[in-house]
Amino acid sequence: MRPGQVSEEAERSVGRQEASEPASHESRSGNVVRFGRFALALMVFLCGVTLLLGFANKDRCTGPQFDQWGRSEPNFTQRARDDACYSDIQYLWMGRDIDRHVFPYIHGGINAKGELTGGTVEYPVLTGVVIWLGALFADTDAGFLLGSAILMAPFGLVTAWMLGKLSRWRALLWSIGPPLVLYAFHNWDLPVVLCAVAAVYVMHRGWGKAGANRPLMERATFAAILLGLGFTFKLYPAIFVLPLMLYVLTGGRSGQELPPDRQYDVKGMFKIAGVALLTAVLVNLPFALAGFEGWRASFTFQGLRQADITTNSFWFWGFRPESDPKNVEFQDMVTLWSPILVLASFALALYLGWRRYKREGTYPWIAVSAAMLCGFLLLHKVHSPQYTLWLVPMFVLLRVHLGWAIAYYIADFAMGVGIFKWYHAIDVNKATTIYDGFTAQAVMIGVWGRAALLVGLFIAFLNARSTVDDPVPDDFLPGVPKPATLS
User: Fold this and answer.
1) End of a domain among 288, 304, 320?
2) CB within 10 Å: which end of the chain, N or C, has fewer?
3) Do 298 and 119 contact (CB within 8 A), yes or no?
C-alpha cells in the first residue's frame, strides 16, 4: 500500500467527489455565504470593473496631444513617472517598429549595441502576435493601449471565472486585487496567466459532461498543452510542467489512477513532458523558419539584460555599489549564478513536494508550482512589477492565510508606485540615495518586503492545502472563525 493510501473503492469515491466542482449545498456549522451562479457572475463582473480601473489608471498617461509619431504629449516620460501611470504597452509604441505595424520577428534581429530591430520584440512569439494585433488599428500610443486592453481584457475575465469555479470566494483576491489595477495593462501578462490557471482548471474540473471524471492522462495532456502554450506567451508556465509530471508519475490524487500493478506511471510522466515540449516547438517553429535571426534575437536580448536599476531585483539592490551595470565582472557573476540558484530552488521545491507525497499519498503539484514560482521571482535577475500577476492566482488556489496576500500587495504597491516616482525624483531632483525622499524608501520597502515575503511564501505554499480539491474549512481566514464564512 502506497503512503497515505486507503482502500481503492473508498479513494475513488472520495476522489471523484473532491475533484469535481464543489457543491454549493454543503452543510456546515454556522452561516455560510453560498457560492453559486450569481456569485460567479458577480466575480466576473467585479473583475471587469477592476480591469476598467486598470485601464483608466494607465490611460492617464495618454494624450492630450500627439507628436508626428503618435507619441503622447506633452512631457510623456515625466508624466509617466511622476503620475505613476507608466506602462510598457504605451512606452513600446515606439522603438520596436510597433508603430509601423511590422509583423514581429520575421524581418528582425539585434544589432551590435544589443538593440532589437525590424519588428522583433523581447517576448515569446505569441505575445509578439498579441502586440501586433493590439497595434493593428492604432496610429497613436493611446490607440495602442486601448487596442491592447480590448484584446487582453477577456483573458482576465476568463481567469476570474475559472478561479471562481476552482476556489470560489478566494477568487476575489484576483477580481478586486490591487495588482489588477496596477498591472493588467502594464505589459502583456493576462494571456499567460490564463494559460497557467486553465491548466489547473482542466486538471481538477475537466471539461464537457465528463468533467473531472475524465481519465487523469486525458486531463494532464490538455494541461500540458496549455502550459506549452503559456511558454509561448511568457516563459514561466513551463516550470509547472515538472510538478505536473510528478503528479502524473504518482497516479494523481492518492495514486488512484496508476496503471494496474504499477507503483509509478513513468510512461505517462514522459508523455506529459513530450506534449508540453511539442506544443512549444510547434508554435515557435513557423517563426523560427520564417525569420530565424529575428526569432532568436528575442532570446538573445533577454540573455544580455543586466541587473540594473530597471530590473527591481535583489541582485541589483543587495550588492550596491558593486552591482553597477559597468561592473562587467559582477554582471557576469549574476548571469552565471542567477540561473543556478533558480534551478536549485526548483529542485528543492520538487524534493520537498516529494517528501509531502510520501507522507500524504498525493503529490502537491499546485503547491510545488507556487513555490517554484517564488524561487524564480526571488532569484531571477529581472523582477518586473507585472510579475505579481503571475503570483496572485497562487494566493487563490492555495489555502495560505490572507495575511500573506495582503502583506505582498502592500509591498508590491510600494514598489509598483514608488519605483516610477523615484525615477522622476532622480530626473528632476537628482535624488541618488534612499535618504533623498520617501519614494526611494518606498522602493526599499518594496524590494526587501517582496524578497522576504517570497522566502516565507516558498515555505508557506509548500505546506498549504489546495483550495481546488481539498475540503473547505468553516473559516475563510484560517484560524479565525466567523459567524458568516466564505466558502
Assistant:
1) 304
2) N
3) no
